[in-house]
Amino acid sequence: MAIVRAKAPGEIVAVDLIRAGGKWVYRFQVVAADGRRRIVDVDAGAGVLDNEGDHK
Predict the structure, then answer these.
(1) How many CB atoms lie within 10 A of CB 32?
(2) pTM above 0.85, yes or no
């Protein structure tokens, strides 16, 4: 969670464990102070950011 908070400050509103690209990924949904929702993926095995995207 520290990795996600550093990359996308805000309130973590959901966490899912999904299978993507042949590996397990934690998908965090974060709502920033300005109301923007971000999706941040963390490789569950390596514990590093996988990719991210902005969503409204």
Answers:
(1) 13
(2) no
* Cα separation, 29 vs 56, whole angstroms: 11
- In 3-state terms, what secondary structure has residue 15? strand
CA distance 1 to 34: 20
CA pair distance 5, 26, nearest whole angstrom:
14
- Determine contact, residues 24/45, Cβ cutoff 8 Å: yes
Query: In the chain, what percentage of residues exceed pLDDT 90?
Result: 59
Report, as an integer, the average pLDDT of 24-31. 95
What amino acid is encoded at 52 in this protein? E
- Number of residues written out for the chain: 56
